[in-house]
TrEMBL record:
Listed transmembrane segments: none
Pfam families associated with the record: Glyoxalase
Gene3D superfamilies assigned: 2,3-Dihydroxybiphenyl 1,2-Dioxygenase, domain 1
Listed name of the protein: VOC domain-containing protein
Signal peptide (from-to): none
Record-annotated VOC domain positions: 6-125
């Protein structure tokens, strides 16, 4: 289990710092730092750094195998994030759905796509033992 003194770090490419900053702020992420070539966010308690790298943008992203996101342990927090994404008119890559219905690993999920075609998944497992 993760200790509270650790923060996961993820670096991803972006094509435009301004639109990237706008997207992540609308998602509720706190801007931590901004430089000429990157922006850093508090992404739900972890660190996401968006590096200006327009030549590395995936023009045809697919959900699998490359995406990142949050697995919520609290359904209300998942619901609030979904409601917030809808309210802020953030672009969905895949609308909310239930995966593995009727199985122990059943979970609710939705995917957003940021301005640089990075895919973000948000999910909630009904059985907390299935998180890992």
């Amino acid at each position: 289990m993760r200790k509270t003194n650790k923060v996961f770090h993820l670096a991803i490419p972006c094509k435009d710092l301004e639109e990237t900053a706008d997207f992540y702020k609308k998602l509720g992420c706190q801007l931590a730092r901004r430089y000429d070539d990157r922006v850093t966010f508090d992404f739900f308690g972890d660190q996401v750094v968006c590096h200006l790298s327009p030549e590395n943008i995936d023009e045809k992203p697919k959900m699998y195998p490359r995406h990142y996101g949050i697995t919520f342990l609290d359904k209300e927090e998942y619901d609030r994030t979904l409601d917030y994404a809808v309210k802020e008119d953030l672009p969905f890559f895949h609308e909310p759905m239930v995966r593995f219905k009727g199985r122990q690993e059943e979970h609710m999920t939705f995917f957003l796509i940021d301005p640089s075609n990075n895919l973000l998944e948000f999910k909630y497992y009904h059985d907390p033992f299935m998180v890992y």
